[in-house]
């Protein structure tokens, strides 16, 4: 009886979905236009005020970079505390004459680009319907919109992530065993190189995404040549910034000098799975200040304290790590900024992220009845692996947001395939 009801519901949904498929370009155009209009209105409403500490710091670094051509936090000397990718983008916009409002709106343009790329990626693998469902699910996930209205790097990171995957997984469809067919000439080489450059830029925006480097060879198997080119391009992009750091500080810093702080925040006596930055490490900070350490030396010192805690409390550290992995999939955070985590926001996150995560879990456990497409496998591996990578430090909803586009992509493919199975016998329209 349940199967009959599901089939009946699928048939009821089938016709409007088929109607939308026939008008794919128009539907996409309307969705993107509405997103951009809403983003512009929201940006104007927020104005020039920067509500959060991280926003103000990114903007300060970008202002120095635009005005003086120096990557500095306080104007007294070089810094590498913040990753350079997002401040560099803000600086470029400042040089073009943009203010805070237009910089916010640029985030919405990138969000729109992310949705189009996600649609393209999903459509290649599972058809027009799945691509449109992905766009609909993303538009129904309001935290994307909220985050785009802030000067946080996650919207840029989402765009670069999906761009790199769209280049890497060209043709990763249901019957396509290789993610990046070489085609004729050297098209495969350009795709892999551009994907690697995008991944390098992504790492300079959010360094945690470096976890994708070793995954490239698994994700692109058996096309190891493309994986090697992409990995080499990534290393060159990130390495160029590492050379700058060495010249500025006479020490090796891969991307930024805040990894030690973040590692200690996630691996210390008072840390919990969901504590985030709300951990008292003031005695470590006082010791570093008393020793007169510069930011790179302080970073090394704080990292050493975190490593020391892990080595001296192995079982507790393991339990903490597992707790952080689990908390990665949470719908709320303990927040340091007062008023940021209103109860209604938690309810919205529960009502929107909860069903997406549940659908993702159902998709994974039903792999025997409905085998995973190649793209589904790769996106699922990245999404799950990201939880383990972020748990090395600490997890936040904001850190997860770029990856949530991959969650949505898997869910969209699953829903599309379910509808096709539940509503047999109906003629599917061919997109114009």
Helix content: 55-70%
Structural class: mainly alpha
Q: What value does the Rg take, in angstroms? A: 23 Å
Tell me the number of strands.
0
Shape designation: globular
Low-confidence stretches: 171-184, 337-341
- The average pLDDT is 90
Task: Walk me through this protein's architecture.
- The protein has 432 residues and is an all-alpha fold.
- The protein has one domain.
- Helices cover 69% and strands 0% of the residues.
- The protein has helices spanning 2-22, 24-46, 53-68, 85-95, 100-126, 128-139, 142-148, 154-168, 187-205, 212-219, 224-249, 259-266, 282-290, 295-312, 314-327, 343-365, 374-390, 397-422.
- Residues 171-184 and 337-341 have low confidence and may be disordered.
Q: How is the topology of this model organized?
A:
Elements (H helix, E strand, L loop, with lengths): L1 H21 L1 H23 L6 H16 L16 H11 L4 H27 L1 H12 L2 H7 L5 H15 L18 H19 L6 H8 L4 H26 L9 H8 L15 H9 L4 H18 L1 H14 L15 H23 L8 H17 L6 H26 L10
Helix pairs in contact: 2-5, 2-6, 3-4, 5-6, 5-8, 5-18, 6-18, 8-9, 8-18, 9-11, 10-11, 12-14, 13-14, 14-15, 16-18, 17-18
């Amino acid at each position: 009886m349940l199967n009959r009801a599901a089939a009946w519901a699928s048939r009821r949904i089938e016709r409007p979905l088929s109607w939308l498929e026939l008008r794919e370009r128009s539907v996409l155009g309307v969705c993107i236009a509405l997103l951009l209009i809403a983003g512009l209105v929201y940006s104007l409403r927020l104005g020039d005020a920067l509500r959060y500490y991280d926003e103000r710091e990114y903007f300060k670094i970008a202002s120095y970079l635009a005005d003086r051509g120096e990557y500095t936090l306080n104007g007294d000397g070089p810094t590498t505390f913040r990753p350079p990718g997002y401040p560099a983008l803000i600086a470029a916009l400042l040089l073009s004459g943009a203010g805070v409002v237009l910089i916010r709106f640029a985030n919405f343009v990138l969000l729109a680009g992310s949705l189009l790329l996600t649609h393209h990626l999903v459509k290649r693998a599972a058809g027009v319907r799945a691509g449109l469902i992905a766009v609909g699910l993303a538009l129904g996930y309001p935290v994307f919109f909220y985050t785009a209205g802030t000067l946080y790097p996650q919207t840029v990171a989402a765009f670069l992530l999906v761009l790199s995957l769209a280049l890497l997984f060209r043709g990763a469809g249901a019957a396509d065993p290789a993610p990046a067919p070489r085609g004729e000439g050297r098209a495969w080489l350009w795709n892999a190189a551009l994907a690697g450059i995008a991944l390098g830029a992504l790492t300079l925006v959010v360094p945690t995404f470096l976890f994708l480097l070793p995954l490239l060879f698994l994700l692109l198997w058996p096309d190891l040549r493309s994986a090697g080119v992409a990995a080499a391009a990534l290393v060159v992009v990130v390495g160029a910034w590492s050379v700058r750091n060495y010249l500025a500080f006479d020490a090796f810093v891969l991307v930024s000098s805040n990894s030690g702080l973040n590692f200690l925040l996630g691996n210390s006596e008072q840390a919990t799975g969901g504590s985030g930055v709300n951990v008292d490490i003031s005695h470590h900070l006082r010791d570093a200040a008393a020793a007169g350490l510069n930011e790179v030396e302080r970073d090394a010192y704080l990292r050493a304290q975190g490593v020391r805690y892990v080595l001296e409390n192995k079982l507790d550290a393991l339990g903490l790590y597992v707790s952080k992995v689990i908390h990665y999939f949470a719908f709320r955070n303990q927040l340091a900024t007062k008023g940021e985590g209103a109860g209604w926001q938690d309810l919205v996150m529960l009502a929107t992220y909860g069903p997406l995560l549940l659908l993702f879990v159902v998709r994974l456990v039903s792999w025997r009845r409905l085998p995973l497409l190649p793209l589904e496998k790769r996106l699922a591996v990245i999404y799950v692996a990201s939880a383990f990578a972020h748990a090395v430090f600490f997890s936040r909803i904001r850190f997860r947001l770029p990856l949530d586009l991959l969650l949505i992509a898997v869910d969209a493919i699953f829903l599309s395939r379910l509808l096709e199975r539940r509503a047999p016998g109906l003629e599917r329209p061919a997109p114009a």
